[in-house]
Amino acid sequence: MNDLIADAITRIRNAAMRKLEVTTLIHSNTVEAVMNVLKQKNYIESYNVEDIGNNKKSLKVVLKYDDNEKSVINEVKRESKPGRRMYKAASELKNFKNGYGTIVVSTNKGVISNDEAYKLNVGGEVLCSIW
Predict the structure, then answer these.
(1) CATH no. for residue 109?
(2) Between the CA atoms of 101, 105, 111 and 116, what dihedral angle is there, to the nearest 10 degrees?
(3) Which of 34, 65, 124, 129 has its CA 20 to 30 A from that of 116?
(4) Do 123 and 87 form a contact (C-beta atoms < 8 A)?
(5) C-alpha pair distances (Å), 24 with each of 7, 14, 61
(6) Based on C-alpha coordinates, what's the Rg of the chain?
(7) How many other CB atoms sit within 10 Å of the CB of residue 65?
(8) Are the CB atoms for 92 and 121 separated by under 8 Å?
(9) Are 28 and 36 in contact (CB under 8 A)?
């Protein structure tokens, strides 16, 4: 597995389509940081790191649904890929989907959302977009 972020996004998208409460992701520090941003922006209920033995970890993600049992996540998309990296300056990160969406950005300040990156005036690699 080369792209753990794309794998995590696909697992979340598939679990939301099947209306599952919990999904399991392969752990990496970057995937954990992306889940932290999604939790801060209320796209997921919670996540926790579990030790699965043999010096390996996994992430259990609890998905969030509205009152009509529809997923809070409308669309999640991997932007920067291993074959084609995408970078944006701080001025380009101001708004996404008129404020209804979030762009997850990897910066020198860590993995943060687009509005935090705009406030800190830092750009970086666009990992994924969600709304």
Answers:
(1) 3.30.1490.10
(2) -60
(3) 65
(4) yes
(5) 11, 11, 6
(6) 15
(7) 14
(8) no
(9) no
Pair of tokens at residue 67? 């009152």
Q: Which two tokens stand for residue 25?
A: 């992701």
Q: Which residues contact 38 (CB under 8 A, 6 or more apart)?
A: 44, 104, 130
CA–CA separation, 123 vs 131, rounded Å?
20
Number of domains the chain contains: 1
Q: Amino acid letter at 130?
A: I
| Per-residue model confidence (pLDDT) at position 24 | 97
Tokens of 37: 């941003």
Q: In terms of residue numbers, what domain contains 84?
A: 4-130
What number of CA atoms fall less than 13 Å from residue 53's CA on the CB side? 0
pLDDT digits (tens, 9 = 90+) for 30-71: 999 999 999 999 999 999 999 988 899 999 999 999 999 899
Measured distance CA(129)–CA(114) in Å, rounded: 9
Q: What is the DSSP letter of 30?
A: H
* Gap between the Cα atoms of 3 and 19, Å rounded: 24
